[in-house]
Design a protein that fits this description.
The protein is of the alpha/beta class. It has helices at 16-26, 59-70, 124-127, 136-139, 154-165, 183-191, 239-243, 279-301, and strands spanning 2-12, 32-36, 76-80, 83-89, 92-97, 102-110, 114-116, 132-133, 148-151, 171-174, 195-197, 201-207, 210-216, 221-223, 226-229, 233-235, 266-268. Helix 6 links the parallel strand 10 and strand 11 (195-197). It binds flavin-adenine dinucleotide (FAD).
Amino acid sequence: MNTGTIYDVIIVGGSYAGLSAAMALGRSLRKVIIIDSGLPCNRQTPHSHNFITQDGKTPKEISELALDQVLNYDTVTSIKDLALRATEINGSFKIETASGSEYSGRKLIFATGIKDLMPAIKGFSDCWGITAIHCPYCHGYEFKHQRTGIMANGERGFHLASLVKNLTDELTIFTNGNNDFIDVQTLQLKSNNIQVNDKKIIELVHKKGTIQKVVFDEGSSQNLDALYASIPFEQHCPIPQQLGCELDDMGYLSVDPFQQTSLKGVFACGDSTTRLRSVANSVNSGNIAGAMANKELAEEEFLIPTL
Ligand SMILES: Cc1cc2nc3c(=O)[nH]c(=O)nc-3n(C[C@H](O)[C@H](O)[C@H](O)COP(=O)(O)OP(=O)(O)OC[C@H]3O[C@@H](n4cnc5c(N)ncnc54)[C@H](O)[C@@H]3O)c2cc1C
């Protein structure tokens, strides 16, 4: 189905970044459609922290309030659907969705986030966002002074260790099979009373996502309350790459400081563009993307006098 409407901006992804972009655009009287498939990365976490005014709310409470406020602007529409393809036609864009709909827009904003790739450890995905956590700022306070692990290695593990050490003295790094720390790092970890365990983890024993212990391949185990994990990811949505948007060498969409991708008329914001992963940061970059898409439209429409 093609509605025939030409939107000023199509936003793909309607979580924190996408809704923030939509608010800037709605307040600028832009005709916007948000297409969202409803799978934000933090959906399993019971409480979201470190976003001022919304500390401790569920992820859904925050996004529902945001959607409610965004839809107060009557030029903004939101639909639940999965964007499948995008085509550029003479500087405008067409999006086709899983339900068979087509939408045309002058600008595109991708706020599609990233997908965390779960390691092959029994129980890990059940604990993700509950006691298997990614960020000390989002969840560290809730596990202060508790038995804490960090499943990471090398520079990343070392960096996390220095942050988490401030929150608990009961800290072990699990390198999960191989140890990439250089000698000076090993010494520094030891001086800070941080254990390094090289055994391969095969299971997180848990009750409804609350970790009880990590189990190693040779049969031993260690009791634990929380496990920070640095795990790989992929772009949640492949469309920006299919359109020709460049990725950086870490796998994020390349954007300039104004959230412009490498493709004219296409902006991106939120987790898909940065390793600084938080609700606050996604709202910030979404706000910039919305404003910049509006700026481009405004400049294109601003009449040149005929002399
Ligand atoms: C487990 C966990 C817990 C976290 N806890 C916190 C916390 O406590 N505090 C904090 O500040 N941050 C937290 N974060 C980080 C925070 O959740 C992210 O930074 C934030 O959700 C990113 O927002 P986003 O809008 O970029 O992407 P997301 O929230 O991931 O949303 C992307 C949206 O795009 C949609 N989408 C993707 N592809 C398509 C497509 N093709 N068509 C239509 N829709 C599509 C998805 O369905 C989704 O709704 C947590 C992250 C994780 C993984």
